[in-house]
TrEMBL record:
The keyword Transferase does not apply. This is Keratin, type II cytoskeletal 3-like. The lineage of its organism: Eukaryota, Metazoa, Chordata, Craniata, Vertebrata. Keywords: Coiled coil, Intermediate filament, Keratin, Methylation. Belongs to the intermediate filament family. InterPro entries: IF_conserved, IF_rod_dom, Keratin_II. One of its GO terms (molecular function) is structural constituent of skin epidermis. Gene3D superfamilies: 1.20.5.170, Single helix bin, Vasodilator-stimulated phosphoprotein. Residues 1-244 form the IF rod domain. The keyword Coiled coil applies. GO terms for cellular component: cytoplasm; extracellular space; keratin filament. PROSITE patterns: IF_ROD_1, IF_ROD_2. It comes from Ursus maritimus (Polar bear).
Length: 329
């Protein structure tokens, strides 16, 4: 989550830098176009200056030509007037003020020449001033444009460096994200493997528990059957004992010739169900008589007081049925 947010922030920052870079590129292009336009204007102004300079030179040549022509005409007129004056002096006695006339004509020509020269000079100075003003203005604009272009170039270099840094950071974040995803995949695979192992162990435990429950149920069924069988035997023995007592039939006597070892088992007073107290093996000959009954056997074989049940089994049968000589409930 944190890496994704940082990546989105970096991408937004890269987009902002791209927009700024594009804006600066557009500004640079506009400045270059303006520079080209100004250069064209400067070139046009320079061409106008050259043309005006050529016109000034032509006018100066024309002025010089007119001055030369004026001097030639003046000299011719003076010579003509001089010749005419000679003729007139010969033909006419009236005197003419040729000097004043020549001076007046010369003054008129000089005035015309000065006026033309002044007009040409004024036009030249006006055009030159306009060109200088335009050139100065364009020069200032050109300097400003050059400064802007230099500033834009520096800004472009800085933006390129920042974009490179952002690209490096983006690459590092991409690598970190890829590594984190790889670690996450490995951790997920490990977790899935452990989960499968735990599920397998849980299934095995469930199977073992079910098997143990089945075995326990079988044992409980066996125990229940044994309990029922023991209860049945006990009732049969008690009924047989009561029948002996009521009919005064004595139990089998143990004579010396037919002595047997009788294993006696019983439950002591206060004993828990299922606990057996071994009372030992008794070998007696000729003891016992008719009418001895249950109490006589208890006293004779030393049953503990409070024994709830007892069963006598001959020793031979007891050896054949080891582990179940006497049972009681």
């Amino acid at each position: 989550g944190r890496l994704d947010s940082e990546l989105r922030n970096m991408q937004d920052l890269v987009e902002d830098f791209k927009k700024k870079y594009e804006d600066e590129i557009n500004k640079r292009t506009a400045a270059e176009n303006e520079f080209v336009t100004l250069k064209k204007d400067v070139d046009a102004a320079y061409m106008n200056k050259v043309e005006l300079q050529a016109k000034v030179d032509a006018l100066m040549d024309e002025i010089n030509f007119l001055t030369t022509l004026y001097n030639m005409e003046l000299s011719q007129m003076q010579s003509h007037v001089s010749d005419t004056s000679v003729v007139l002096s010969m033909d006419n006695n009236r005197s003419l003020d040729l000097d004043s006339i020549i001076a007046e004509v010369k003054a008129q020509y000089e005035e015309i020449a000065q006026r033309s020269k002044a007009e040409a000079e004024a036009l030249y100075q006006t055009k030159l001033g306009e060109l200088q003003t335009t050139a100065g203005r364009h020069g200032d604009d050109l300097k400003s444009t050059k400064n802007e272009i230099m500033e834009l170039n520096r800004m472009i270099q800085r933006l390129r460096a920042e974009i490179e840094n952002v690209k490096k950071q983006n690459a590092n974040l991409q690598a970190a994200i890829a590594e984190a995803e790889q670690r996450g995949e490995l951790a997920l695979k490990d977790a899935n493997a452990k989960l499968q192992e735990l599920q397998a162990a849980l299934q095995q435990a469930k199977d073992d528990l079910a098997r143990l429950l089945r075995e326990y149920q079988e044992l409980m069924n066996v125990k229940l059957a044994l309990d029922v069988e023991i209860a049945t035997y006990r009732k049969l023995l008690e009924g047989e004992e009561c029948r002996w007592a009521s009919n005064s039939i004595s139990p089998p006597s143990l004579t010396e010739g037919t002595s047997s070892v009788i294993s006696v088992w019983g439950r002591e007073a206060g004993g828990r169900p299922g606990e057996m107290a071994g009372l030992g093996n008794r070998s007696d000959a000729g003891e016992g008589g008719e009418g001895e009954g249950r109490c006589g056997f208890a006293a004779r074989f030393g049953f503990p007081a409070g024994a709830a049940g007892w069963l006598l089994v001959p020793a031979a049968e007891g050896r054949a049925r080891e582990g179940s000589k006497v049972g009681w409930v």
